[in-house]
Automatic annotation (TrEMBL), chains A, B, C, D, E, F, G, H:
Protein name (record): Lrp/AsnC family transcriptional regulator
HTH asnC-type domain span: 1-62
Organism of provenance: Subsaximicrobium wynnwilliamsii
Signal sequence, start to end: none
Keywords assigned: DNA-binding, Transcription, Transcription regulation
Lineage of source species: Bacteria, Pseudomonadati, Bacteroidota, Flavobacteriia, Flavobacteriales
SUPFAM superfamilies: Dimeric alpha+beta barrel (SSF54909), Winged helix' DNA-binding domain (SSF46785)
Gene Ontology CC terms, in alphabetical order: cytosol
Transmembrane segments: none
Length: 135, 135, 135, 135, 135, 135, 135, 135
């Protein structure tokens, strides 16, 4: 990874749909040369993918919450993680230090959806919920 | 927003660099028609931008942490938020319920960088740190 | 709902037995006109009922307590809620964020009644009790 | 206070606008006799007033919260209580055992109003907020 | 109970072996008159008994501890109380607010005795121990 | 200290006003011999005094509380201890492990007296109060 | 133990491989005399052994952690202690006051090893982990 | 570092005063060869020193404690660390995650010495103390 790669990553981080031509201009390389480098960054596993930044409120999200799930038995944490990380409401799911737990960031249409979610995950552990007031 | 818009969002969420042509194929519309809809989603503020999913470990990140910053005085929380949310190490910064605090997700090269960060933000409040063990 | 409705609600909030005539005077409408509006507020479900403000001490209440009931299993919280919310000692019963729990406000003749209550609800969860010192 | 008084209180608790005639019927007394007893219950300070049960959601309330305000200095708790208890958003305000604090139940139009409220009361102490998910 | 009774209680509180004659002198009554009053205070259940203030260190006590025993099931708290309150190491045993628990003050020859005690009472709940550093 | 001393202590612990004659009978010694031994136990500082066991409820005590006073500055804990330990409401006052604090057991006529007490001691630290429900 | 013994301990504490001759010089005794004293200190059980101070980072240790293991049942704490204290990752293992628990200091190659360790010990209790940031 | 170095470290870990000759025998090398390797391990900074394992009880230690010192201001944590880590009572001093704090392991002659220590370090932060019951 050289300085040009870092510059490419920086531009894509700001706008993942930036055209190769535009990136090329700012580092004085051709679009195909940039395309080759981007491909390499993907192949090396540095770039894992391209995602959207959405205004979730406009899509009907009214309740965002961090949920700390204190696992009943540490030995079942991996199972819990695999079940929970891929639920559609879940934005992030991380095992963190402190009490042995998962820290889940999830978005919901309303409090009812949050309650349903809490009931679903409570088979793995004891949830503690904090609502996001401002982001 | 109709079903086609939802389908477009879903495809871009999976790959924000998906070509308009490919999206068009799956909803049986032309690339320019898709382009127009994407533009509208941007103009309505539903799509806020396009970002990268990076393998931070490969970029030298060895310490990831959630930091709960319990603010000294609630009245200074907004200032703290504005100062902290845009620091380069910070991935997310949210005001959450429970103790009046900011919940900060930040990535660091090593523990030293984390310590420097803690010292910088401790002017606004009392930090509590949890290390991400697995994501 | 217009300004007159808001005025009616404000007057009834202060004194739910206020006569329709008195309310009418202050908004320059007839008693029957007020009666019609009150009926509509009831029918729309805005006014749910009329209640008493009592001096509970004079009725023999010596111990008032907030009880946080941390539910054993989130999936049983709804059952617990339904059983507890309608007990005669219970003034309020709300599911709140933080640890998954019910927040119960209840009034008791004395500490013995409180202890009996704690024992009864402990089948649903682990209680934490705070006594009201001043209201 | 005799059994008839208790019966009157019970009926008014269910519906504070119940007519004296109806109450009279159920205890086999005349409306004026009931009126006299109600007046005595008011004069003895047992009945403190008559209030409304409102559907706050229909009046635009989207965020209900319990806020525990841990007072900076116990000696200022009384001042804090007097300032906070009469704010329009406040439904209940009680000094409780545990950490020396006020337990405040308050209703807000949205999270922004809640944040403004937190900032206003944070001059007296450190707030801890729990959102009501279900009542 | 009159002022003379209060004076008697005050003198006995300072020295429970004070002679009736001495108490009598200070309230200008005869010893038999005092004896009669003391007997009445006992019969009314105001005086429950007479106890020693001991220097426990000189009797070999090296570890004094407050133990908060968080009961597994509130319904078993009474049983736990009855079993624990009369153990020889126990000085006080009270059910207190907060988490549903017993607050036990107990004295031990050494840390080993404390550990044995913790193991014995842990069948009723989860102990939390604080050592007395200074009294 | 021999077995006879231990027997004397045991009898006085049960009834501090036990007559020397009665104690003597049970250990087969004369009253004067017992008196001499008791005097020695006092002189060695093993017996610190004789106190009353009172029914505090019958003396008007309605609120008993444990108060954990978390000291503002450890260096002022000794001052706080000296001021607080001798207040008339205070039954016990101990410095304990955990957070640097005093654990105070105190008895009050009612909640108002407790509140006044909390305000008085809050100059030294932050109080946390638990009410005794059963002893 | 005299002053010379204390001096010997002090020198060995700084460098456990210090030669007897060097120690002897500083206390004006012969090497054999020092040897005899060291032997006595070992026989009395004052010196339990001689250990290395290692740079664990240079041996591949990247994660050091304190783990508080809150035991499921106090009666099983001794078993847990015996199993855990001798695991190779464990540097210290102590039963401490507060919640009935073991306080474990352990060193790991990486976070994965820590997670494996947490899962292994979670059969005895609930772990709470703190990472060492600086020593 | 090869297997022989690892074997040398293992033997020295068990007994830091092990003779080079004995180590040599077990790896089939001469004492001077071992001496050279040990020197290299010291020069590479892998071996930092040689220390004693002492029976502290026999040296008069009666109170061992873990003290979590929650620092007043994170920016002063480094100063606190430097002042505290080298005090004679201190065995370990580590900055750990969770609340921004130092975790101090220290040994004391008695509770009085512990109290003096708490008062000395309380200028840097708020101490929380746990006594070691068993090691």
């Amino acid at each position: 990874m050289d300085d040009i790669d870092l510059k490419i990553l920086e531009m894509l981080r700001k706008n993942a749909r930036e055209s190769l031509a535009n990136i090329g201009k700012s580092v004085e390389l051709s679009a195909p040369a940039i395309g080759k480098r981007v491909k390499q960054l993907e192949e090396k596993g540095i770039i894992l993918g391209y995602s959207l930044k959405l205004n979730h409120e406009k899509l009907g999200i009214r309740t965002k919450a961090y949920i700390i799930l204190k696992i009943h038995q540490s030995s079942t944490l991996k199972t819990a993680y695999n079940q929970i990380a891929h639920l559609t409401e879940v934005q992030r799911c991380d095992r963190i230090t402190g009490d042995d737990c998962l820290c889940i960031l999830a978005f919901f249409k309303d409090n009812k959806e949050l309650i349903t979610f809490l009931e679903r995950i409570s088979q793995y552990g004891v949830p503690n919920t904090s609502i996001l007031l401002e982001s």
